[in-house]
Amino acid sequence: MNANTIFTIVVIGSFVFGMFIYFGMNKTRMHTNAPIQNVTEFSGFGEANATISDFTNYLVVSCNTSNYSVISELQKIENVTNAYLGGQSLIVVSATSPEDAKKIVPKVSSVLSPFCKASVLRAAYISLENTVVLKDKKNNTLKVYPREIELSAYKMGKSGIEAFVYPFSKKGENISVEVYGVVDSRGEEKIVKRFIAQEKQRPIELKSWEGEVKAKITKLENRGKASAKIEWKERNINTSSIKGTLNRYGNASIDYTKKDWVYIDNKLSNATKKLVKNLSWVRSLSFSNGKTRISIGNFSDESEVVKTLVNITNTTPELPRSVISVSFNTSNFSAFSDVVSSLFSNYSEVSILRKAEVSFVNASKNYTFDFPKTFEANVYPSLKVNETADLKVDVLYTLQGILSIAAAPYR
C-alpha cells in the first residue's frame, strides 16, 4: 500500500468515524503510583485477514475534481441524507441506512461519471483474524495482537474496527485488508491510538442486462407513479395546488422538471448573441452539444419568443416540454388514479403505473445471473393478480449478484 492510499484512508476516517482515542489510555494513566516509563510512538503499515462484522450508512468516494457542484448533484439522489467534501479529492456520502448505502453505489458512480473516474468504498466494521505486523518507513516492525487493537481501537457501541471495503461485500465475508496503525508503547504495554483498514483493491465490474421479460403478478400495491409532459407555454403550473388536491386522496410527492429555456440548433455569432442578450426576457445564453440554450425564466408568450428569435437568428427555436412526475401511495388506487387523470387531462403523454410484486416467467434473451423469486415492477393499473405482464427490464449486477432491477411496460 502506498503512502497516498494510507493518507486517503486516514483523512476519510477522520471525517466518518472521528479520531478514536479509547478511554483505556486515560485509565492506564490514572495509576499515578506506578513508575513513569517513556512512551514510544510507532506508526506503520501492514496486512491482515479479517471478517466483516457490520456496515455503516456511509460511502467514501475518491473523485479528483474541483467542480463542487458534484455535492449538490449527489444530494439529489434518493435515500442520500448528506454529501460533503471529506478532504482533498474525497467525498463522504451518507444514506438513510446501511442497506441503502449499498443500493446507491451505482447511482453515485453514475452521477460522478461526468466529473471523474470515481472509486467508491463502503464504510464497515471488521474483526481481525490474525496478528498484525506493522512496518514503518525505516523498515522497523512492531507486532500488534487483535486483542490489543480491539481494546483500544473499537468505537464504543459498534461491532468492530473501522474499515473501508468493496461496496458490494457481504456481512460475514472474509477479506484481506491493508492497515495503518499508530501505537504507543510503554514497556510491554501497547495502546493503539489509531487503526484503520482498507480492503485490498479488487475490481468492481458492473454489468447491465436489458431485455423483455414476461412476469406473473403476485401482489398489487396501493402505490404508484404518474407522469406527463407539459407544453412550453403552459409550464408555469402551480405544483402546490396539484399536490394539495392529490393529498386529499393519499400521500403524494411531486417532482417537476420545469424547462425555462429554448434551444437554437446552431452556434450564434457574437453579434447575434449580443442581440439576443438584449431581449428583456432573456436571462442567459450557453452553448453545448451543437445547440445554443437561451434561458428565459417565467416568460411564456410563445408567439413573441418564436417570432423574435426567428427574426434575429433565422432559426425556429425548439421549445422543450416540461415533465411532471408524481409518486404516491393511497388506500384507494382507483380513486386516486381518477383524480390524477382529471388533473393531467390537458397534458400530453400521461402515464399512470401501479407498483406490483411480480415473479419471473421467462425472458426474451439469455442472461448470466439468477433472477430473484419475486421483484418489484411498475405495471398497468388494469392488470390483476395472477395475470401476466410484458415488461422491459433493466438489470444492473456484479459477479456477487443483482444490484437493481427496473421493470416497466414496454408496450
Walk me through the topology.
Layout: H1 3-16, H2 23-29, E1 40-62, H3 69-75, E2 80-87, E3 90-95, H4 98-103, H5 105-112, E4 119-128, E5 132-135, E6 141-144, H6 146-153, E7 161-165, E8 174-186, E9 189-199, E10 207-230, H7 239-246, E11 251-257, E12 261-264, H8 270-277, E13 284-288, E14 291-295, H9 302-313, E15 322-329, H10 333-343, E16 348-363, E17 374-379, E18 388-398, E19 401-409
Parallel strand pairs: 7-9
Antiparallel strand pairs: 1-3, 1-4, 1-8, 2-3, 4-7, 5-6, 8-9, 10-15, 10-16, 10-18, 11-15, 12-14, 13-14, 16-17, 18-19
Can you walk through the features of this model?
There is one protein chain. This protein is of the alpha+beta class. It has helices spanning 3-16, 23-29, 69-75, 98-103, 105-112, 146-153, 239-246, 270-277, 302-313, 333-343; strands at 40-62, 80-87, 90-95, 119-128, 132-135, 141-144, 161-165, 174-186, 189-199, 207-230, 251-257, 261-264, 284-288, 291-295, 322-329, 348-363, 374-379, 388-398, 401-409. The radius of gyration is 28 Å and the shape is globular. 27% of the residues are buried.
| N→C terminal distance | 52 Å
Mean pLDDT: 84
Q: How large, in whole angstroms, is the Cα Rg? A: 28 Å
Q: How many strands in all?
A: 19
Assembly category? single chain
Question: Helix and strand string, N-terminal first?
Answer: HHEHEEHHEEEHEEEEHEEHEEHEHEEEE
User: Which segments are poorly predicted (pLDDT under 50) over 5 or more consecutive residues?
Assistant: 19-36
Silhouette: globular
Helix vs. strand class: alpha+beta
> Approximately how much beta-strand content do the residues carry?
35-45%
The share of residues in helices is 10-25%
